[in-house]
Amino acid sequence: MPRLVVNGKTHDVDADPNTPLLWVLRERIGLTGTKYGCGIAQCGACTVHIDGAAVRSCSLPVNEAEGKQITTIEGLAQNGVLHPVQKAWLEHDVPQCGYCQTGMIMAVAALLTEKPKPTDADIDSTITNICRCGTFQQVRAAIHAATNA
Ligand code: FES
Ligand code: FES
User: Fold this and answer.
1) Fewer Cβ close by (within 10 Å): the C or N end of the chain?
2) Contacts of 79 (CB under 8 A, 6+ apart)
3) Dihedral of alpha carbons 66, 71, 75, 77, sign
4) Coil, strand or helix: which one is 90?
5) Residue 88 CB-density burial (10 A; 0-12 exposed, 13-18 middle, 19+ buried)
6) What is the pTM of this model?
């Protein structure tokens, strides 16, 4: 039975070790902020943090996440205070339908941990999440705003 630490809480989950982490988060633990888009590590809707790095959870067997710190969108705010990326997203009205946005925010938060002042080239090469609503210009503006927060 895999044991996971998600947003600081330990969960013993009844799941086959090869089950993608995404489905364990959504269906066993009930954290539905992480979305399913493609299931093949292409769209980024399912992005979470594993030990601080952005990972596409649709393609990670749950047993590979054991013993690591998993953070989902539900755990990004700390003590009721939104993460700077979340604040910038609100200020720039980034979401349209919203479906891709939790994965987008998690990918950006991990980027800013690694590179606090990313260039447009850094953003283009790292934030490869797909947004069918085409929010890419707002995403870029909000990333730059978050770096100045
Ligand atoms: S659902 Fe995981 S990358 Fe698309
Ligand atoms: S906001 Fe609709 S898919 Fe990105």
Assistant:
1) N
2) none
3) positive
4) helix
5) buried
6) 0.97
Provide the pLDDT confidence category of residue 70 given band limits of 50, 70 and 90.
Answer: very high
Segment 60-78 shows an average pLDDT of 97
Residues 6+ apart with CB under 8 A from 95: 89, 101, 135
Residue pair 34/54 in contact (Cβ under 8 Å)? The answer is: no
- 3 Cα: distance to centroid of ligand 2 (angstroms): 32
Ligand nearest to the CA of 131: 2
Between the CA of 34 and the centroid of ligand 1 the distance, in Å, is 10
Calculated CA dihedral for residues 91, 8, 37, 44, nearest 10 degrees: 70
